[in-house]
User: Which sequence fits this backbone?
């Protein structure tokens, strides 16, 4: 069992440095993808403020399929290239969306979500899936979140067998 250290009140770069450190501890000695994705989503959801969903969609054929997450029930299948998750997967670039209702083709799994960040998970040339985080706050995510979550995703990818 791991006790989580609170990151509340720390500047964002320090929050993410602490979360990466905690993730390393959670993943130590475990390479199973489902276990690691489940713990990673719980770590993010319970550590970062202002979230209403944190989890993963996994690349399967020409779509993304719901993986481990924390939050309300979610859309199960998303087409590549559609919505924020599908755009991040198809473009292989992180998407930071200040207002999801202004994003062309946004897929509203939870109408309470207002902003979103999606980080593609790529090992070598292979698209594994995406890390998706939603917030009910407008403009919740910024460049510091992008950098921190991309670092978080790199640690997860290095420590996990997909």
Assistant:
């Amino acid at each position: 069992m791991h006790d989580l250290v609170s990151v509340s009140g720390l500047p964002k770069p320090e929050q993410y440095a602490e979360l990466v450190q905690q993730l390393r501890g959670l993943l130590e000695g475990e390479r199973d993808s489902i276990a690691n994705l489940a713990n990673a989503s719980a770590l993010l959801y319970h550590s970062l403020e202002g979230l209403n969903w944190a989890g993963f969609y996994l690349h399967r054929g020409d779509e993304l399929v719901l993986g481990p997450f924390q939050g309300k029930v979610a859309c199960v299948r998303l087409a590549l290239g559609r919505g924020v998750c599908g755009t991040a997967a198809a473009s292989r670039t992180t998407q930071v969306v200040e207002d999801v209702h202004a994003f062309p083709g946004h897929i509203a799994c939870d109408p309470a979500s207002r902003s979103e960040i999606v980080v593609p998970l790529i090992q070598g040339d292979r698209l594994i899936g995406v890390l998706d985080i939603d917030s009910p706050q407008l403009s919740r995510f910024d460049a510091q979140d992008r950098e921190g979550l991309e670092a978080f995703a790199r640690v997860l990818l290095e420590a996990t067998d997909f």
Residues 12-159 form a domain with the Beta-Lactamase fold (CATH 3.30.450.40).
